[in-house]
Fold this protein.
Amino acid sequence: MSKMTKQNGININCPLPISDYKNILLAHGSGGKLSHDLVRKIFLPRFRNAYLETLQDGATLPYIDQSRLSISTDSFVVDPIFFPGGNIGSLSVHGTLNDIAMCGAQPLYLSVGFIIEEGLPLEDLWQIVLSMESAADEAGVKIVTGDTKVIDRGKCDKIFINTTGIGTIWPNLDIGAHQVEKGDRIIVSGDIARHGIAIMSVREGLEFETTIESDSNSLYDLVNTMRQAGTIHALRDPTRGGLSSALNEIAEAAELGISITENNLPIRDQVQAACEILGLDPLYVANEGKLLAFVPESEAEEILEAMKSHPLGKEAAIIGEVVDDHPRTVVLKSRVGGTRVVDMMTGEQLPRIC
Amino acid sequence: MKYLDEYRDPEAAKKYLDLIHRTISREWTIMEICGGQTHAIVKYGIDQLLPDQLNFVHGPGCPVCVTPQEMIDKALAIAQLPDVIFTSFGDMLRVPGTDKDLLMVKSEGADVRMLYSPLDAVELARKNPDHEVVFFAVGFETTAPANAMAVNQAYKHHINNFSILSAHVLVPPAIEAILSDEYNQVEGFLAAGHVCTVMGYRQYEPLADRFKVPIVVTGFEPLDIFQGTYMALKQLEEGRYEVENQYARAVKPEGNLPSQELINRIFKVADRSWRGMGEIPQSGLCLRSEYAKFDAEQKFNLDVDLPVRKTECIAGAILRGQKKPLECPAFGTRCTPEHPLGAPMVSSEGACAAYYNYRNFQQKQKSTPL
C-alpha cells in the first residue's frame, strides 16, 4: 500500500512522536517502560479525555439518566490493514458505533483492545491511531479505556483490534425485528458491496480505472436524521454476508417474507464490474457504511427524502417490501422478470472457475 | 453498465419470451451444457418464464462437478506433502474427496491458496524456489489456454518447481456420451459460448448431423439464453438440426486459432474419468511427454488408492440431464451446500447448488421426471 492510501482522510501534518524504536517490540506489551511509552506517547495524546486520562484499570463513567443502554463489541482482523477509503483503525471505530446505532442508540463511549504482532512499524500504528481518533471525533464518541498486547511474530497478522461501545437508546424508540410488519418498505442507504470489493481488489492486486474506496463510515447521524423523519421498525448494517444475511436475519426473526427488486438495488458500475469479473454476487459482499431500514409504508417516502438530504444517504433507495406469502424467505425479482430465493451464504463466497 | 445491461434488458427479453411462447407447439427437452448457463437460468428465474412444455435440463458443463473423487484425493495428497504450495481456483476448495476437502487440509496446516490465474502460480513458484508449487488445472476448453500458457511460461523460464495436476475435460465427447445413452431424452442443446470462443463450433457439426439434434452456441446473459433457446426451439419445430451461433459477438466458426495451437502444443487428448459419468474415451487433456516434468501426477509419483466413497449422490443422472436436483431424495436434507454429498451441490455452477441457493427447496418446483 502506498503512503497516500494510509493517510486517506486523516491529518497528515501530525507526525509520529519521536521514538527510539521504529517497530513494535515484544517489550511494548510487557507492561514495563516501553508499554508505558506507547500509552503516553501514542494513545493518550490522540484519544485524550477526562475518563481515559486517569489511566486506571477501567473507566468510571458519569450517570446516564433515564436512558436505556446499548452495548456492542466487535473484533477487527481485516487484511490488508490499510485499504482505499480507510484502515483497520477507522473500521474498528465505525463498525462498533454502527452496531450501536442499529439498536437505535447514540454511541457515547468506546473501549479499544489492540493485539499487535511484534515488528509492526510504529508508523503504521500511528496512522491507525490517527484515523481512530478522527473517526471517534466525527461521531462525538470518547475512547475511555483500552488494552495492548504484543505477541510473537507470526502469531497474529500485523494488528487485530477489538472495540466495545456503549450508547444510549433514543427516547421512545423501540426498534428490532419484532416490530417489522407486512407492508413495511425496505430502504438501503446507498450503493452496495463497496467495502468488500475495495478490500478484495487490494488483496488480489486488481486495478480498475479509478480506485474503488471502502464505504466505511459512521451511521449514527443518519439514523438520528431518520428517526426524526418518521417511524423506524428495524435497522441492520449489512456488513459481512452483505445484504443477503441482513435480510434473511430479519425475515427469520420476524417470521415474514421479504421481496426485493434487483433493478432497485443501487450499485456502482465499477463494483458491479468487479463482481462480474470475480464471479461474486454483490448481495453477499460486505458493506461498512450502509444501513437497511424497515419502515411503515405510509412513512417510507418521507424517511427516504430525509435520508437523501443527509450526506450518507444521498443514494438511498427503496429496494423492496415485507410480505406474508413466503415466510422466512427472501425472494428477489430479477431484471428479466423471473424470481429467485436469496439464501444466506454458505461458508465464504468462492470465486467461480469460469 | 455498458456491454452488460444490454443483455439483461427486460423489454428485449420479453420480446424473445413472446416469440418462444408463440413458437412452441409440443413438449421439448433442451439441455444447456454449461454450468455458467445453469447458474444464469436459475439466478434470473428464466426457466420460470418459459412455457411449461419446454423442459430445461442441466448438463455436465461444470468443471468442478465432473472432476472425479479420485482426482480430488490426489490433490489432497499432494497438498499435504511438506514444502508444497497447492494452488487452485476458488470453487474447487470445497469439493469433497473421499475423506476431506482442500479447505479442511488447509485448516490442518497445508499451504493451500486460491488463485485467479494459473500464471500467478508460476510467479509464486519463481518467488519460492525452495517450494513445489502445484496448480489444480481443472476446466473445459475455456481454461485450457491459460493453463497451457502457465506450463509454457514455466518451460521457457526453467521454473522447474512448478507443476499442474491436470483434470481437463472436453465438451464434444460429453455430448456424444449423453446422446449415446439409451435413456437420453435431450432433443436440443445450448452449447457453451466460452468453450466455443476458444474452439469454434466446427466440432459440433458432425454431432448435430449424426444424432439429428440442433446445437446452438449460446452466451451467458439472460438475453443470450432467451435468444439461444428460441433458435433451438425454432429448429426443433421446423425439423432442422443444425449448429447455429447465437454468441456471434464472441465466437467465430473456427474459434481462437492461437489458443488452439497453444493447447495442442502443451496438451494431448486422453481418456478421462468424469464424476458420475465414468470413463469417457478421448474426453480429457493431459500434458505431452515433452512437458512431463510439469505433470504433478508424475512428479509426486502418487499412490492414492482410497476406496471411492459410496454416497446417495445421483450426480451421474443429474449431469446427463436424466434427473433434476429436486428429484434426488437427499436434496436439501442430507445434502446441502454446508454438507455436500457430491460436487453438483458445491460449485455455484453445479445444478444442485444453483437450485438450492436460488429456489426455496420447500416450494417443490414442477419437475417432470424423465
